[in-house]
Amino acid sequence: MNSKEKFINSFRNAKLHGNFILDLNPFTKLNCAFAIFLGAALLGHYWTRLAVIIICYVINALSGKENFKRFVKLYSFVAFLFFFFLIGLNTCFRPGETLYWEWGIIGITKEGFFYGLSMALLINEICGSIMSFYMVTPMKDIMYSVERLGAPRAASYIMLASMQSIIDLGKSANTIMESQSARGVETSGNLKTRAKAFVPILFPLFLGAIAGTEEKTVAMETRAFSANRKPTHMYELRKTPALEKVFCVFLDLVVIISVVWRFLP
Amino acid sequence: MASGKVNTKMGFYLIPLGIAVNFVLGQIVTLLRLPVYFDAVGTMVVGALCGPVYSIIAALATGALLSITSPSNWFYMANYLAVGITAGLFAKWGFFKKLPKSVIYGIIIGVICGVAGSAVTVAVYGGYTASPTGIITGAIVKTFHLGLFTANTISECFSDIIDKIPSAIIAFLIVKAVPNRFLLKLPYGNEYIHGMNRTENGE
């Protein structure tokens, strides 16, 4: 089979990413993310929450090298911010019985520290599962599955076009910023100078983008985007295997049973 | 008036642009190290030019896409929704036509976001957000012996008003700078047509 035939045939079958986690049905992944973070949030131990954060790292590591790098870079920053602020602020400002040190309005308490730690772990495990879901599920897959459930294709267009527009607009913002600083607009200095630099970047950016929107409208309408028919897809996902559904039900049951067991007297 | 059908389509294609503006302004502001977020300007522009339905869609999509990189945005979805609803409604009442009215809109939406945001902060985070605003909240709680919700409302209204007034002014200036021939194709565009002798019905 030559490369041309291979390319053509790739559209005849469902798209596979070639990775066990990436190929799962988007709803399976959503179900797992919710089950895991709700379970850990309701169980309320430090350890279950920490375990969820570690599971998020493991899942991303299994889903490919590129994904893992991106996840570590993005999530580690978010996680650090939450740990730093939530533990710091709760330790310093939350009133408690065991007071270690007091200075002015700051009073460091044991209760505050543990409250902050538990809160930071909770927020981090929720953020970790949401972010992992987005990392291992391409937006294309999410919108395709949602569309299959009956969402309008306009919704898919808005989400996917926005992601592309963000990249495009970001690029032209950089170009405009460099051109403006080349012709002498100060982009560094005190607050007033920097605020002033904002205007000559913003207006060329927005008006250029609006002109682009007009062209996009014509292009989309000439290709019958608003036609009142059911569209076909060049990009299709595989049928969900039965094993996946069984796994989902199993995971949900485990989570429900463990939460019920925890709250039984 | 131009026919409604042509108008709506152009408005629809403006939504992704509004979402992208929300994102990119946030990036520019970070690059210039200005103390604001500006993640609602695009929503306001879409609301001003196309009305509430479009701005609500833009606001919700912005919230969903922003949470890819900072998932805690999911908690504050109500704030995005509030901006979406009010931007369209206030545009309907002509708030983006004059600068002072835009400033008033900025104050109103700042207060709404402050109150809604502080309710979320107390319910989800137990009182302190993971941002410098949280430090202000802590200082208010300790200095004036106020409850967490009151202290949060004060500090978040403060930071939101600082953010939303310039946002509303920028949205007003952008709407004013949009060329007439483009305005004609948008649902609310007729309201903003400039440089022509307009008759009563806006033709």
How does this model look, in words?
The complex is a heterodimer of chains A (265) and B (203). Chain A is mostly helical and 265 residues long. Chain A folds into two domains: 16-141, no CATH class; 148-222, no CATH class. Chain A has nine helices and two strands. Chain A has a two-stranded antiparallel sheet. Chain A is flat, with a radius of gyration of 25 Å. Chain B has 203 residues and is an all-alpha fold. Chain B has a single domain, classed as Arp2/3 complex 21 kDa subunit ARPC3 (Orthogonal Bundle). Helices cover 72% and strands 0% of the residues of chain B. In chain B, helix 5 runs antiparallel to helix 7. The longest helix of chain B is centred in the last third of the chain and has 30 residues, at 148-177. Chain B is elongated, with a radius of gyration of 18 Å. The model of chain B is unreliable at 1-6 (pLDDT under 50). Classes of the chains: A mainly alpha (265), B mainly alpha (203).
Give structural attributes.
heterodimer, A: 265 residues, mainly alpha, 2 domains, two-stranded antiparallel ribbon, 9 helices, 72% helix, B: 203 residues, Arp2/3 complex 21 kDa subunit ARPC3, 0% strand
Number of helices of chain B: 8
Mean pLDDT of chain A: 86
Order of helices and strands of chain A: HHHHEEHHHHH
- Could you name the ranges of chain A where pLDDT drops below 50 across 5 or more consecutive residues? none
Portion in helices of chain A: over 70%
Subunit arrangement of the protein? heterodimer
Report low-confidence residues of chain B grouped into runs of 5 or more.
1-6
Strand content of chain A: under 5%
Report the CATH architecture of chain B: Orthogonal Bundle
Spatial gap, N to C terminus of chain B:
7 Å
Would you give the CATH topology of chain B? Arp2/3 complex 21 kDa subunit ARPC3
Q: How many discrete domains of chain B?
A: 1
Question: What structural class do the secondary elements of chain B suggest?
Answer: mainly alpha
Q: How would you describe the shape of chain A? A: flat
Which series of helices and strands of chain B comes N to C?
HHHHHHHH
Helix-strand category of chain A: mainly alpha
Indicate the radius of gyration of chain A in whole angstroms: 25 Å
What amount of the residues of chain B lies in strands?
under 5%
Order the strands across the largest sheet of chain A as they lie in space: 1-2
Largest sheet of chain A: 2 strands, antiparallel
Number of domains of chain A: 2
